[in-house]
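INPUT
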Amino acid sequence: MVSFILHGIEEGLLFAILALGVYISFRVLDFPDLSVDGSYPLGAAVAAIMIFKGLNPFLVLPLSILAGALAGLLTGVLHTRLKITPLLAGILTMICLYSINLRIMGRPNISLSPYLGHKTVISILKEINLPLEDRYFIPLIFLLVVIALKLLVDLFLHTELGLAIRSTGDNEQMSRANSVNTDTTKIIGLSLSNGMVALSGALFAQYQGFADISMGIGMIIAGLASVIIGGALIRGRTVGMITFEVIIGAIAYRLAIAAALKWGYNFGFKPTDLKLLTGLLVILILSFLILKTKMELKPLRIIKR
Amino acid sequence: MLKINHLSKVFFKGSANENVALQEINLYVPRSDFVTIVGSNGAGKTTLLNVISGVFPPEEGKIEIDGQDVIKLPEYKRAPSIGRVFQDPLEGTAASLTIEENLAIASLKNKKRRLRLAITRKKRKEFRRKLKTLGLGLEDRLREKVSLLSGGQRQALTILMATLAEPELLLLDEHTASLDPKTAQKIIHLTKEIVARNSLTTLMVTHNMEEALKFGNRTIMMHEGRIILDISGKERAKMSVNDLLDKFSEVKKEKLVEDKMLLI
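OUTPUT
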């Protein structure tokens, strides 16, 4: 049981990086960016092929981030310059990336194995001899990385540029009237978001020991699920609280999925039902939230008048 | 200060819904003039302000602000020299950001936005000082979200934001229309104060004829995309609301006659 939970937390923490990226596009910019389904495997593909070719597994991470950021840049340019709607711009990038990812990997999947001499970030961490057991050490490192990333995102969103990105997502008319180039802020936000998503993909590929062309399917919904679950659990009001709740949401989501996989058999579920379950979970939470606000509105009105 | 020549704007050009919003507008506004603009719905008042601020491009014409031809500049590049307050209080502020964050965005209007903290202790002090001049107690609520403010408070904040970076030109688009009479009075008073303090060149669209004659030093009446009346000085001082209304129906009648003549 302990290892089951630790495992879920490990995966949840890697997932949290993706969720932070989705938070930037979805909530900060108010841009439902489906390119995530392509940029997540893109990060994984770049990491896998580079490690396969013998590059240091830490050095591949910035390359993955850069690749993801370029994908976000494409979506942003499609939307701002060619005036394509956010959804379609994201889908276009996603579908282009499918072929690009296949090109990068040269085949549908690459597996990284210590038996073949491939080093990953995780295998290197495990080589360090510590009094702490690996099963505690690895999630601890992941936690520190995620916290560092969260603080960086928080800090960025409070800079002059970050604030302009936030106001763009809130009120475009007001932003332009205050001399914010909303095209640029959208492009920067999307690049940042997809860079983080690709980093998550790169780490996940190293963690599970393989990259697969289909590993991105439904990732946007999974990311969204994390953001929504976190929001329902904590309902933070400041940027720092919201990024925190996103991380908690990602871990909760991953644990829920792990539990569904482990005990779902008893209820007749198969692993192939996973995407369906994720979809249903998001629908359930969204309808729950609507029901809740409806119930809350009524007494509020009585108080006000 | 503001020079407009032969400005025309047509919406849905070439379609069945073609709508001539501005025709051949010529307007010169010297520095520190306060111009009130009146006219019926669809007269082109808001369109005029939107074309000046670059929300959409005109079909024809020239706009100069402070000697600079701005016609090719996108909205965000014109923004440093233009302060705007909209009819809807929700339009001028970002609801999910705090009061001080909104002010920080406005304070960077004429500067490059960099990777440094948007709100410093020095800035916060400055914001508090400026908010105090509004007399609404907002200086003690710097870190509250703007969504918690009332329409009047939001509009007051928008006026402050619009004038924070010292624009050349202030455009007010019926900025009191959606407020209750008492709040509207307050906002109008505040507007006058801020405009006078910074001796801003101002265009104010209003539905209120009395207000139009009472404030500023010049009044323009628009009808069907044209400026049909432009009064200032003694002529304006003598004019009453009824005179203004008479003038309006006079021009409308003349127009009707012209149209009839065209048909015959």
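end of record. The interface with chain B takes residues 156, 158-164, 166-167, 170-171, 173-182, 237 of chain A (CB under 8 Å).
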